């Protein structure tokens, strides 16, 4: 018997049992569709997050106080660490220390809410240099201006607010020139940012930006910074800049052993790598959970193939009496199983791609994320291969049983 | 020429039953033989041995000069495919499959080119008078028609012998008559060797020779002088 005959016989066998064939492949369809969905969403999430981080620019370097966090419990100690102070910033700015440094700003996060004539809103309050912030996030006030170096030097009570903050406090009236209260202290609104949305981990629409000196001294009353952001002259010089920063800060803190560092330096690249690893692990984990569905689907196929072999005992006996060899019977049933699961794989890929596309649409439209639908071609090919393999693995045993049936027993079977 | 030869064939089963207890006879090419006996006499077991579907526990069975042991498993399948045709009491057609596909089934395993299969199968269907049913599904046919399809399937590879196991057992007398008419015609006009298993004396008397089995032994082996003519009977 030729291979194409085996395939045709298998197809005929499947066609004569349409409902059962469909129900059998359902498990495979769902398994493959879920794998495709997981992989597509994983890729989409990765590119979304990387795009947002990318918004900060590869030249950006962040210095944080405390030890580098190795787990969630370490984040607290970073937040409350007080090792980054004005003299560190002064040391970093000194030309000989970090030659590749072009810009620097300390950053402070201020908890609290803002209010104007009885309207209250809880924004993200950030202390920073106005110019540096605008440059890094590429956003400039739509109305009014940024605060400048003078304001920073004088701890001026001035503020630039995000579009949502302006809306909440002032509705449609003009915000520039008005006085708002931050933690019961008066600030003059000098500028309003245009709507922009999520960039990196901030929603700029809900941002309230004050000079970092004002935030540190006037609002928080502390003598340290939460982080220091530095811009290097090019992405290539980031590595050298990081080394220079570490040397400068160790000198400033009288540290000789890097293990005793009370600060750590993070680059965008490191962050990107980290996120990629985390998302990759997450996707792999979810996909492997989903892969269990495939095994279950495969067992379903095996189960049905056993039923089919028992049910068609007479047919097997007849075929053997008419001259089918054991190999012919084996191939017939094996092809049936593989064809079944391969069809399941194709349907699953189409279903998974459709669902991923819909998910991208929903995430993009409803949640307002810049979600990009990606069709994971490697996953699709893998899915097809895996589904055929499932058919082979789980079809082999029933097919072997079929081929070993004695023709007499098989013909006698009623 | 001797086509098949049995010498002291015995067949026992693991549970201790002895289906055949020393059966010997031989069949020449072109003979039409009926094997008779009450149920439990070993008829079916004998047919399985004759058809290389089962092996005897003792004795020697030669088909075309060779025993079952002379062949590998796949060769046995090839012999069944090329040299033997089977007709069963229960027809054993593939359900939900057309007459043509059913008759083509043995060709699938015989290495005949696909382009030739339809024609060969059509010719076999024609010879049992079912040309107008080629595209019908087997379930749409009457019992007599089903058995004719089964005969066409047995013929399609032009075998040396046709084994018919109670071919009229599931049919009314008129359809049974037609089946016997076809078998007789195949024997007389086409020269096929036919071995028929039946428990009806009337059916057996269409053959030239009757072998009677009783309790796994040969009871008698007689030539029929006044062979029933299926056509004559049918016309009366």
From TrEMBL, chain A:
<feature type="domain" description="ABC3 transporter permease C-terminal">
    <location>
        <begin position="288"/>
        <end position="407"/>
    </location>
</feature>
<dbReference type="GO" id="GO:0005886">
    <property type="term" value="C:plasma membrane"/>
</dbReference>
<dbReference type="InterPro" id="IPR050250">
    <property type="entry name" value="Macrolide_Exporter_MacB"/>
</dbReference>
<protein>
    <recommendedName>
        <fullName>Multidrug ABC transporter substrate-binding protein</fullName>
    </recommendedName>
</protein>
<dbReference type="Pfam" id="PF12704">
    <property type="entry name" value="MacB_PCD"/>
</dbReference>
<keyword id="KW-1003">Cell membrane</keyword>
<keyword id="KW-0812">Transmembrane</keyword>
<dbReference type="GO" id="GO:0022857">
    <property type="term" value="F:transmembrane transporter activity"/>
</dbReference>
<dbReference type="Pfam" id="PF02687">
    <property type="entry name" value="FtsX"/>
</dbReference>
<keyword id="KW-0472">Membrane</keyword>
<feature type="transmembrane region" description="Helical">
    <location>
        <begin position="277"/>
        <end position="309"/>
    </location>
</feature>
<comment type="similarity">
    <text>Belongs to the ABC-4 integral membrane protein family.</text>
</comment>
<feature type="transmembrane region" description="Helical">
    <location>
        <begin position="21"/>
        <end position="42"/>
    </location>
</feature>
<dbReference type="InterPro" id="IPR003838">
    <property type="entry name" value="ABC3_permease_C"/>
</dbReference>
<feature type="transmembrane region" description="Helical">
    <location>
        <begin position="369"/>
        <end position="397"/>
    </location>
</feature>
<keyword id="KW-1133">Transmembrane helix</keyword>
<feature type="transmembrane region" description="Helical">
    <location>
        <begin position="330"/>
        <end position="363"/>
    </location>
</feature>
<feature type="domain" description="MacB-like periplasmic core">
    <location>
        <begin position="21"/>
        <end position="246"/>
    </location>
</feature>
<dbReference type="InterPro" id="IPR025857">
    <property type="entry name" value="MacB_PCD"/>
</dbReference>
Automatic annotation (TrEMBL), chain B:
<dbReference type="InterPro" id="IPR003439">
    <property type="entry name" value="ABC_transporter-like_ATP-bd"/>
</dbReference>
<dbReference type="InterPro" id="IPR027417">
    <property type="entry name" value="P-loop_NTPase"/>
</dbReference>
<dbReference type="InterPro" id="IPR003593">
    <property type="entry name" value="AAA+_ATPase"/>
</dbReference>
<dbReference type="Pfam" id="PF00005">
    <property type="entry name" value="ABC_tran"/>
</dbReference>
<dbReference type="InterPro" id="IPR015854">
    <property type="entry name" value="ABC_transpr_LolD-like"/>
</dbReference>
<dbReference type="InterPro" id="IPR017871">
    <property type="entry name" value="ABC_transporter-like_CS"/>
</dbReference>
<keyword id="KW-0813">Transport</keyword>
<feature type="domain" description="ABC transporter">
    <location>
        <begin position="4"/>
        <end position="236"/>
    </location>
</feature>
<protein>
    <submittedName>
        <fullName>Macrolide ABC transporter ATP-binding protein</fullName>
    </submittedName>
</protein>
<dbReference type="GO" id="GO:0098796">
    <property type="term" value="C:membrane protein complex"/>
</dbReference>
<dbReference type="GO" id="GO:0022857">
    <property type="term" value="F:transmembrane transporter activity"/>
</dbReference>
<dbReference type="GO" id="GO:0005524">
    <property type="term" value="F:ATP binding"/>
</dbReference>
<dbReference type="GO" id="GO:0005886">
    <property type="term" value="C:plasma membrane"/>
</dbReference>
<dbReference type="GO" id="GO:0016887">
    <property type="term" value="F:ATP hydrolysis activity"/>
</dbReference>
<keyword id="KW-0547">Nucleotide-binding</keyword>
<dbReference type="InterPro" id="IPR017911">
    <property type="entry name" value="MacB-like_ATP-bd"/>
</dbReference>
<keyword id="KW-0067">ATP-binding</keyword>
């Amino acid at each position: 018997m030729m291979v194409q005959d085996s395939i045709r016989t298998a197809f005929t066998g499947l066609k004569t049992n349409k409902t059962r064939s469909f129900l059998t492949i359902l498990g495979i369809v769902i398994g493959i569709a879920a794998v495709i969905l997981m992989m597509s969403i994983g890729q989409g999430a990765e590119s979304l997050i990387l795009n947002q981080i990318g918004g900060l620019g590869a030249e950006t370097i962040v210095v944080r106080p405390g030890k580098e966090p190795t787990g969630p419990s370490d984040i607290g100690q970073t937040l409350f660490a007080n090792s980054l102070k004005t003299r560190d910033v002064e040391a970093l700015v000194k030309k000989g220390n970090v030659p590749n440094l072009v810009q620097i700003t300390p950053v402070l996060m201020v908890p609290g809410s803002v209010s104007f004539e009885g309207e209250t809103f809880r924004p993200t309050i950030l202390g920073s240099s106005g110019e540096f912030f605008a440059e890094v996030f590429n956003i400039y006030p739509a109305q009014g201006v940024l605060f400048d170096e003078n304001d920073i030097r004088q701890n001026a009570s001035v503020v630039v607010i995000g579009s949502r903050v302006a809306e909440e406090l002032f509705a449609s009236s003009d915000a520039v020139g008005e006085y708002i209260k931050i933690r019961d202290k008066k600030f003059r609104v000098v500028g309003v940012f245009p709507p922009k949305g999520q960039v990196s981990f901030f929603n700029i629409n809900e941002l309230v930006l004050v000079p970092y000196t004002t935030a540190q001294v006037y609002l928080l009353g502390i003598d340290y910074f939460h982080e220091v952001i530095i811009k290097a002259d090019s992405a290539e010089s980031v590595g050298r800049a990081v080394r220079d920063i570490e040397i400068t800060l160790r000198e400033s803190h009288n540290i000789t052993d890097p293990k005793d560092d009370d600060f750590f330096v993070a680059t965008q690249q490191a962050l990107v790598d980290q996120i990629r690893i985390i998302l990759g692990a997450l996707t792999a984990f979810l996909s492997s959970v989903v892969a269990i569905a495939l095994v279950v689907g495969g067992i379903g196929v095996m189960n049905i193939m056993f039923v089919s072999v028992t049910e068609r005992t007479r047919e097997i006996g007849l075929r053997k009496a008419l001259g089918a060899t054991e190999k012919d019977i084996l191939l017939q049933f094996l092809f049936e199983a593989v064809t079944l699961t391969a069809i399941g794989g194709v349907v699953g890929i189409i279903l998974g791609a459709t669902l991923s596309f819909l998910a991208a649409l929903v995430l993009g439209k409803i949640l307002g994320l810049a979600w990009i639908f990606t069709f994971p071609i490697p996953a699709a090919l893998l899915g097809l291969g895996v589904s055929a393999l499932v058919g082979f693995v789980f079809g082999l045993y029933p097919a072997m049983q079929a081929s070993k049936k004695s023709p007499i027993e098989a013909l006698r079977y009623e | 020429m001797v086509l098949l030869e049995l010498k002291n064939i015995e067949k026992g089963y693991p549970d201790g039953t002895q289906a055949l207890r020393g059966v010997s006879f031989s069949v020449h090419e072109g003979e039409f033989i009926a094997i008779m006996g009450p149920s439990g006499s070993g008829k079916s077991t004998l047919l399985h041995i004759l058809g290389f579907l089962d092996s005897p526990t003792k004795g020697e069975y030669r088909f075309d000069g060779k025993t079952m042991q002379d062949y590998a498993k796949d060769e046995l399948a090839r012999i069944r495919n090329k040299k033997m045709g089977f007709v069963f009491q229960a027809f054993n057609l593939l359900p939900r499959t057309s007459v043509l596909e059913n008759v083509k089934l043995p060709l699938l395993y015989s290495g005949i080119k696909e382009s030739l299969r339809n024609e060969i199968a059509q010719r076999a269907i024609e010879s049992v008078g079912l040309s107008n049913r080629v595209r019908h599904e087997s379930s749409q046919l009457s019992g007599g028609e089903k058995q004719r399809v089964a005969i066409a399937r047995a013929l399609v590879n032009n075998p040396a012998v046709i084994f018919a196991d109670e071919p009229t057992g599931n049919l009314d007398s008129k359809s049974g008559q037609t089946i016997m008419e076809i078998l007789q015609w195949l024997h007389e006009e086409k020269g096929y060797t036919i071995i028929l298993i039946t428990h009806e004396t009337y059916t057996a008397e269409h053959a030239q020779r009757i072998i009677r089995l009783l309790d796994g032994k040969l009871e008698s082996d007689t030539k029929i002088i006044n062979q029933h003519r299926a056509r004559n009977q049918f016309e009366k």
